[in-house]
């Protein structure tokens, strides 16, 4: 049953090859199918041993209390993207394969299998990154991602050489004091590239700012969430991150550089790209501390960041040179998302920052809170500037008041202006913005889930028990 | 002597990394990435090598034999396929870049972009 989450999107991707146009219509139904399966027919605590091979020798798909909520979130984001993005025909097939790959990377309990899924994600990501004639940005990503992928392969093979298996559960028993840090460094380089921690994440601004409604959502939201899951599985569940302070310092430097970069940008797309780097770097810095309260707050932060950036990037893609004057619904969604990113009270972002700061103060950590607060001030600066600019854009254009013909023409222009954001995108962004408000009033909706994930991800025993069901 | 292959793979890896860092031309960077892939593949195959080992195929002649480890070879086969795919995709992107900017040199591309903007 678990395998359907990978097999169904893949089957529909193949089915859409002869009829390219069908791919984009399949995508929302496949995402909905996955969500229905997850909610009604699957529950955490399942393992599938592919080909009936014991987990130690074959590929095992594991659905536990950590992978389950991540799968729901990722498939929800895919559904939202399918409804809001303007998909060209050929992107339907690609995004169906991406759906299979992100579900696979979350489900798999095997290092080499996760490498294969990571490479599938990467190849699709390079193609998606090249959308809107952005081959140069995509090529930069390919070079960074290629090195990252190679390092992941070296890490996976090192696990095999030392433990005699590629299974993630058994890899935790490697105790060699020289090999474990080496394996972790290989994996870490991959994550620093894929999670856009500067300087290895320098590819991101060129890729995310291409003006597409697909690229930043697919890469910045969906792929990022699946890779944060893999980061958590490897460094919080299986191995101990070597020198977590160093990773924390790297991530904190990345937050500052990204915020300064965002402040300096003259284009909204590039500013949002740098803001995304800052958001994910904050999550990496928090997760590297390996504390359940901090990890829970980091997942809450990830939820807020991903949902907010989904709204901001989607609206940026459709806005072009226009403002919110003729589309106030989009403007409200954009402003809500901006306020949530900054951490304004009554929005999810406020609780994300509050829980994170509270958890950090509890362990007497003061450097990261200081940087988060500085980053929030900088974020407030440029996001308010962009909001003001977009709300007042076009106001200084003189209106033609006299003459029936002129006013008719003006009405026609307004009608054209009203249509520049598709109905699906308007509904989805408004829905997500309202979600941020609802979570702002009822943070327990998300906090209970993130606490559950954090407690499970830092406890290796349930994962191993699940794997051992199959025996050695 | 058996360690020589590891040193060779690390030297090739070093050449690849040096190429990516030092070469400005985008095509040379792509080739450097391919060299890194090759170095890692050689390293992985070498990990499964057993001196005087035989091909890992059970038969009447070799019911118990000194087999080389087949798993690294299987991993490398997959990695080679992925590497070729990435190389092909990178080449396509370079063709597009060359068509758009008329060059694969980052300085010339930057100049062209500034003129366009």
Can you give a write-up of this model?
The complex is a heterodimer of chains A (472) and B (117). Chain A is globular and about 65 Å long. A two-stranded antiparallel ribbon of chain A has the order 1-2. By secondary structure, chain A is an all-alpha fold. With 117 residues, chain B is mostly helical. Chain B is 72% helix and 0% strand. Chain B is elongated and about 70 Å long. Chains A and B meet through α5 and α6 of A and α2 and α3 of B.
Total strands of chain A: the figure is 2
Biggest sheet statistics of chain A? 2 strands, antiparallel
Number of helices of chain A: 20
The geometry of chain A reads as globular
Taking the alpha carbons of the first and last residues of chain A, their distance comes to 23 Å
- Give the helix level of chain A as a range of percent: over 70%
Q: Helicity of chain B, in percent?
A: over 70%
Mean pLDDT of chain B: 87
Give the rounded overall mean pLDDT of chain A: 86
Number of strands of chain B: 0
Unreliable spans of chain A are 397-418
**Helical/strand content category of chain A:** mainly alpha
Portion in strands of chain B:
under 5%
Topology:
The complex is a heterodimer of chains A (472) and B (117).
Chain A: H1 4-15, H2 22-41, E1 46-49, E2 60-63, H3 67-84, H4 89-107, H5 111-129, H6 135-163, H7 168-171, H8 179-194, H9 204-208, H10 215-238, H11 244-264, H12 268-287, H13 292-319, H14 328-342, H15 348-362, H16 367-391, H17 404-418, H18 423-441, H19 444-457, H20 460-468
Antiparallel strand pairs in A: 1-2
Helix pairs in contact in A: 1-2, 1-4, 2-3, 2-4, 3-4, 3-10, 3-18, 4-5, 4-10, 5-6, 5-10, 6-8, 8-10, 10-12, 10-13, 11-12, 11-16, 12-13, 12-16, 13-14, 13-15, 13-18, 13-19, 14-16, 14-18, 15-18
Chain B: H1 4-22, H2 26-47, H3 70-101, H4 106-116
